[in-house]
């Protein structure tokens, strides 16, 4: 459905046919005129004398907005046409290869980004707790804080998101924050009201989910009450009302305290908190409304423009340093296939791998098994790919050096052909090298070489 919406947006962004600019060059038009060909406003080329249609492939320059929408529609239609899985020793399947469109609103790609961010959160929390226990003997405490503002209309959404991000950045620099919070993850989410019975219908609700890392002594020293959080947020967000700020201590999924668990198990137990901060930037149900195509079209256009080039997740404080040390790539622009690469403890399984491939069947509207194969492990394949890439770069550098040397040889020969031994002659030769056609330069070099006479007793190599 989403690709059809982008097609419709592209169509709406197209001007009338008579306003489309021809893509052909002036030279192409001159050649057509010489051949007696003409082109209709629809791009159909025909013989002006006989009326015979020659071809219908003449392209037109599309407006940038229409071109972008069409490109996204094409990418969405071809998102994840196949999926190759690695079969793990326990029988489970782990995605090994696929092709994703990376369109911001694509439900498939949003799902993969959510899984990737969730895996990264668990890695960072585990590393942060391990380092803190090694140094101080206790794990960090973790809070989930949601910062909100009132709903805004579509034309204010982009500016409001930017204002929330600036507010978060500025609040993280204040004395009260710095005295209590050591690290954080900020994840921005935008919801859209599609319920016509509500006063907020067709408005947008941008808000921030923040995972905060605080010392174990936070509830004794440096504790920030919910009202103080709300006042801080109102100040930095610049609201003339007290916004809703939800503050919760993170608990295990069974409701027990995370602090009662061994440090190594705390990250895995923070399921709900991880799910909150790794949510979609915008839920598909908020912009894909089958019962209201016009609303879907309008919402997709708004979110596509307002979320474009805006970073919806970011690390801060010690969590940013840990994420950098772990060399985690960006969940918004990074690899959407290998989202959780934890090595198996089975040594045999790490030597070879079994893969199964599924392909999307349009008629069945489902993935159907295509093939099975045995091969190197994903790590071995990545190492081989890296080695191949290194070899290609080395070859390209060698080829570039050879090309440069060849060019230098041509320059040197031309200077000799011109007898450029004094400053004036060299200046003339340099000017000619910059201005004369290459064929003329090469011809002069060939003439020079043909007339070159070796002294008596010298022999030509070869």
Report on the architecture of this protein.
This protein has 462 residues and is of the alpha+beta class. It has 14 helices and 14 strands. The strands form 4 sheets. It has a 5-stranded antiparallel beta sheet with strand order 11-8-10-9-12, with helices on both faces. Strands 7-6-13-14 form a 4-stranded antiparallel beta sheet, with no helix packed on it. A 3-stranded antiparallel beta sheet has the order 2-3-4. Helix 1 (2-13) crosses helix 10 (293-306). The termini are far apart. Mean pLDDT is 78; it is low at 55-60 and 343-351.
Task: Present the secondary structure layout.
Blueprint: H1 2-13, E1 21-22, H2 26-35, E2 37-39, E3 45-47, E4 53-55, E5 60-61, H3 64-77, E6 82-87, E7 93-98, H4 107-136, E8 141-148, H5 157-171, H6 175-180, E9 183-192, E10 204-214, H7 226-237, E11 245-249, H8 263-269, H9 271-277, H10 293-306, E12 313-316, H11 317-325, E13 353-361, E14 366-375, H12 378-417, H13 423-435, H14 438-451
Antiparallel strand pairs: 1-5, 2-3, 3-4, 6-7, 6-13, 8-10, 8-11, 9-10, 9-12, 13-14
**Poorly predicted regions:** 55-60, 343-351
Shape: extended
Order of helices and strands: HEHEEEEHEEHEHHEEHEHHHEHEEHHH
Category from helices, strands and their pairing:
alpha+beta
Distance from first to last alpha carbon: 70 Å
Alpha-carbon Rg, integer: 32 Å
Which properties best describe this structure?
single chain; 462 residues; alpha+beta; 5-stranded antiparallel beta sheet; 4-stranded antiparallel beta sheet; 14 helices; extended
